Amino acid sequence: MHDAIQQIGERLRGLRDVLDIKAEDVAQLCDLDIDTYLKMEDGEGELSISSLQKISKKYGIALDVLLFGEEPHLSHYFLTRKGQGMSVERRKAYKYQSLASGFRGRSADPFLVTVEPSAADAPIHLNSHQGQEFNYVTSGSLLLTIGKKTLTLNEGDSIYFDATQPHGMKAIGDKAVQFLAIIF
């Protein structure tokens, strides 16, 4: 996990160098102070998917390039076989598997997300990003907070919401939850 986070930080620094962008500008875009952002570039912390998405949209670079270091090439279709999506572990409890990493110019980012169980009293970390999000639970149970509302989603449940609202989730119980997340 640490290597993946460090590689993302290196790609961010490289992007800034190539486009001649100040670290302060990227930190401000991500709503972070400069010291926190620079720690993330050094691999000592991690940016949320929502922050990476803000960076990718602002500077016209595919989210996959930041996450995986690979530029999407296909424009007619992209097939992801079971278990073969590009993946990155973020935080200890979260694993994101991109289901369309090779499709160029896509208007949505679909991920298969696995969230490992945590202590019942563990806080839910909230984030927000532009656009909308759709989540469909494929296994397990998910505790989802959107704004001030907390909802329980079980296998087969889905939700579509305004992603500019602070939101976060965690697995309920002692087993992981897996869900399809599509960010529009």
Q: What would your notes on this structure say?
A:
- Strand 5 (141-146) and strand 6 (149-154) form a beta hairpin.
- It is built from 5 helices and 9 strands.
- It folds into 2 domains: 1-68, lambda repressor-like DNA-binding domains (434 Repressor (Amino-terminal Domain), Orthogonal Bundle), CATH 1.10.260; 86-183, Jelly Rolls (Sandwich), CATH 2.60.120.
- The strands form 2 sheets. A 6-stranded antiparallel β-sheet has the order 1-2-3-9-4-7. Strands 6-5-8 form a 3-stranded antiparallel β-sheet, with no helix packed on it.
- By secondary structure, it is α+β, with helices and mostly antiparallel strands.
Write a concise synopsis of the structure shown.
With 184 residues, this protein is α+β, with helices and mostly antiparallel strands. It contains five helices and nine strands, in the order H-H-H-H-H-E-E-E-E-E-E-E-E-E. It has two domains: 1-68, 434 Repressor (Amino-terminal Domain); 86-183, Sandwich (Jelly Rolls).
Structural topology:
Blueprint: H1 2-19, H2 23-29, H3 34-41, H4 49-59, H5 63-68, E1 86-90, E2 94-98, E3 109-115, E4 132-139, E5 141-146, E6 149-154, E7 158-162, E8 167-171, E9 177-183
Antiparallel strand pairs: 1-2, 2-3, 3-9, 4-7, 4-9, 5-6, 5-8
Helix pairs in contact: 2-3
